[in-house]
Amino acid sequence: MGSLPVDLEKALNGCANGDRLALRQIFDQEAGKLIAVAQRIVRRRELAEEVVQDAFIRIWTHAHQYRSDSGSARGWIYAIVRNRALNLLRDGRREHVVEDVETLRDDQQADEIMAAWHRLDRNSRLYECLGSLEDTKRQGILMAYVGGYSHGEIAGRLRIPLGTAKSWIRRGLSALRECLA
């Protein structure tokens, strides 16, 4: 079909205003990738499909809560799917060892985060300011605001204490604010 990619932020605003076509557009564009993300967590295709269906109900009913200043629309949507999948495991509907959940590597999410960084206009102030941060601080901020990761998830993925992750993100954000001002 070769259609243009859906503007997820606009589509979420559409959902918030009751536009079912907007939800359909998000589904058509993202469902395949979202099922793959969920399947890496729950390990079974039919459970992954169930997770994504639940997530789309939540996306529809909670779209009004999405705020662009707290991360990308894609990050918000993927975070809902990840949380739904992890809740499914936690609810014991799957026999799974905690270590399995903890060691999950969401490569697609990591790629997504780096792609967002590389998609930024090289001449933009944001790119310049993010580029001036230490790697780990930049990575922490991108994981939080593009990937939708919690501070705990970031600490786990970067293998650092939770307090360190929180202070890196806090300091990185204040350096970013200062740079952008």
UniProtKB/TrEMBL annotation:
Q: Where is the RNA polymerase sigma-70 region domain?
A: 27-94
Under the heading Gene3D superfamilies, the entry gives: 1.10.1740.10, Winged helix-like DNA-binding domain superfamily/Winged helix DNA-binding domain
Spell out the SUPFAM superfamilies in the cross-references. Sigma2 domain of RNA polymerase sigma factors (SSF88946), Sigma3 and sigma4 domains of RNA polymerase sigma factors (SSF88659)
Q: Which residues form the RNA polymerase sigma factor 70 region 4 type domain?
A: 125-176
The entry lists its GO molecular-function terms as:
DNA binding; sigma factor activity
Which keywords does UniProt give here?
Sigma factor, Transcription, Transcription regulation
Name a single GO biological process.
Answer: DNA-templated transcription initiation
What NCBIfam families does the annotation carry? PRK11924.2-3 (NF008893), sigma70-ECF (TIGR02937)
Instruction: Give the family this protein belongs to, as stated in its UniProt record.
Output: Belongs to the sigma-70 factor family. ECF subfamily.
Mind telling me what this protein is named?
RNA polymerase subunit sigma
Q: Which organism is it from?
A: Rhizobium rhizogenes (Agrobacterium rhizogenes)
